[in-house]
Amino acid sequence: RSCSFTGFSTMQSRKLAKSLGRSSVRSRMSLKPPKAYNSLQKGAVIWDPKPLQVKKIFEALKKGLNEYLEAHQAELDYLSGRHKDTKRNSRLAFYYDLDKQIRSVERYIRKLEFHISKVEELYEAYCIQCRLRDGAANMKHAFSLSPSTKASRESLVELYKNFQECTEDMCFMEGALEVHLGEFHLKMKGLVGFARLCPGDQYEVFVRLGRQKWRLKGKIETDDSQTWDEEEKIFIPNLHDKFEIKVTELRGLATILVGVVTCDSINFFTTKPQSIIVDITELGTIKLQLEVLW
């Protein structure tokens, strides 16, 4: 095996190194690093890229955007049909109002199509960097198994450098892709606990997504209704973090932990509001109900 690896010449490895350098995303795309990546310096990697997670988010995002596109295309077809009927009936005021609506929907459709094309372009570039990074890693492993020579050591240094550059580029592109993920609007619908919830009970719900936090307090009223000091919150999705939900019961100055759960946001990229019911306790005796709109 060592001989076969040595047979892969230094010239070939340097060609690969040059190709990796030419493919550097920052040499081809003007990507401004998001705040989360501001401390990323050349040669220093904050974390490893997560290609499998990025693929899942990309597929969910593309599916959701296409759902929006189909819904607005159907709306445009409906308005266009009414537009033709109104034109024949000569109701000018209504006709011009429909014309405005049609132009507005057409503009939104063009924006959606552009958004989808940008996401696809960014993910395609990400996949290229991922393949180049894997190639550099395989080459590094191959050279490490071959007899050490000056040429092989130089190639290893060059491959390590290109591996780092690909890693940095992937991290920057993950940050750039997050810009296209939109917003999650969370609405508190209340706790469900049947016999576990009694009038006068007070609870605190803490929701976290990365650095974003939402803390709200609620009380069970005498008529079994619930009042919460805050009912809605906007979260900005990201690629790596899941929703963390913590519920505690407030008893005077003491707090009793009810439960902590995590919730993946992969299914939230859809046009319809999602009703989410999460088991807070292991036996499901207390549940938290949220509504998520993307």
TrEMBL record:
It comes from the Eukaryota. Residues 1-294 form the FAM65 N-terminal domain. It holds the Pfam family PL48. PANTHER family: PROTEIN KINASE PKN/PRK1, EFFECTOR (PTHR15829), RIPOR FAMILY MEMBER 3 (PTHR15829:SF15). Belongs to the RIPOR family. This is RIPR3 protein. It comes from Caloenas nicobarica. The lineage of its organism: Eukaryota, Metazoa, Chordata, Craniata, Vertebrata. The gene is Ripor3.
